[in-house]
Design goal:
Blueprint lengths: L2 H24 L3 H25 L5 H7 L7 H46 L1
Length: 120
């Protein structure tokens, strides 16, 4: 397997994870989306680390014999930039949903306390 194919497959897996995460957020599956976001962040960090490690490294037999450094194609750098932006966007959406859910719980608790005091 070539390194570019590996990068491409991992990038596609990341895109699938973010699509799943976006669906979970839209369906208000907050707890599962939080876990999925953590997993997607770890995958993204690993992907970025692999790309940075490979960029400028002498990969394979040809790289070692001829001392030719490998340069990561620009398309993978664009994927990384897009995925980081998508992660930030989904993180903001999830935070908004969590805050909205927490506010709703707090309002419900306040209503219950208020009606409990009026009943006594």
């Amino acid at each position: 397997m070539t390194i570019e194919k590996e990068f491409r497959e991992e990038g596609m897996a990341l895109q699938r994870e973010f699509a799943i995460l976006e669906r979970m957020i839209n369906e208000n599956e907050i707890e599962m989306a939080t876990e999925e976001l953590t997993f997607a962040k770890m995958m993204l960090t690993s992907y970025i680390k692999k790309i940075k490690t490979a960029d400028g490294a002498k990969i394979g037999v040809i790289g070692k014999i001829f001392r030719h450094p490998y340069h990561v194609p620009e398309e993978f750098m664009k994927i990384v930039i897009a995925m980081v932006a998508k992660e930030k966007q989904l993180s903001k959406q999830l935070n908004k949903k969590q805050e909205k859910q927490q506010n709703q719980v707090n309002r419900e608790a306040a209503r219950n306390r208020r009606t409990g005091k009026n009943a006594n």
